[in-house]
Amino acid sequence: MKTFLKSPRRRVTSLAAAVIVLGLCATAVVASTASGGRQATITLRVGLFGDFGYHDLYKKYEASHPNIDIKEDVQSYPDHHSNLAKHLAVGSGADDIESIEVGFIANFKSQPSNFVNMNKLGVKKLKNLWLDWKWRQSVAPNGAQIGLGTDVGSLAICYRRDLFKRAGLPTSRAAVSKLWPTWQAYVATGKRFQKHAPKGVSFFDSGSNVYNAMIGQLNPAYYNAKGKVVVSSNPKVKAAYALTMKAIAAHESAGLAAFSNEWNTGYKKATFATVTCPAWMMGYIQGQAPKSKGKWDIAAVPGGGGNWGGSFLTVPKQGSHPKEAYDLAKFLTSPASEAYIFKQTGNLPSQPKLLKSKAVLGFKNPFFNNAPVGKIFGTSALELKPQILGPHQGDIQTASTNAIQRVEQHKQSPAKSWKQFLKDVKAVA
Known about the structure:
four-stranded mixed beta sheet, D-Maltodextrin-Binding Protein, domain 2, alpha+beta, globular, 2 domains, six-stranded mixed beta sheet, single chain
């Protein structure tokens, strides 16, 4: 999951709290235990960097655990991870459950003393629920398991059928997929689109989104197997940047900063025809442009495979209720919960049995012209070869996004922005 928010820090109380107050009265304050005793209500705070689709699950959990009151703390992607690091450093302020995106998991698992070792709570017996590589991504150097995997971000391309038709391009997902077996072909298709595109419409939304998808298919990308940063010496990274610059120079990019208010408006006003589409992006598109139902469809990603995003739920040690927090995290990442979230938001489960199940493989999303999203994303996820990640993966990605936006905003030339990118990488990693 990688839904970024630009809004300031805010606290969101689950709607289930109201249900408990109105329907259970005194149990909102105290709850009867199975033994007949009385137990004070425990408030569990869940720190996220976007909408993970958990609200209905909170209601269900609170209904079966009347002594638990769940509240969300939602921040922007960079603020969430930055503030988590600060809270861990000073020993206070972290929520009972903290989400960590895959780009930052290597950094946080290098400090396992700050997190509850879930192995000590019996999580090892659940290990086989997850894709092996997903499980290993949150295992600390000392063997501690600090997180439970939420989703994976296998890739596709979401496109507007109506805009493709107006530009004289094919509209069926099979025909569209054949347009771009490679990223070079994708950029070439963009040139065709721009020649006949409606006024004010660009082929894609953001250069950084296209670049991130190309990077998501590389292994190694930013780090080699020895954990060394190889951004400046990896020719494939430079090639991804150069191709992105070529597309920008051809005016194929709308130049929008991903997850900005302007980007959100672009969805509503249909100012771009394609967007790099990891599984979790489906929920974002539906949330931003609900009236565009049926106008979107999903095609194969150029180059095949790749991953962008995916997260973990962790339990910081500084929390007051680690056992209860772990139980909630386990529930939120259970097979039933992950299957429900996939159908509601598009966040793809990180559990192989689910990815192979009829519930996932047979699921078609009516919003995206009944695209067989379960098959498209599920098959891709099962074939994924995980990328080598390093402790500053997220920081490097942020630096690359800034570099591309400088060019799109005409603040620097591609060459100067690349040099600045390498300097920024050196500074953070």
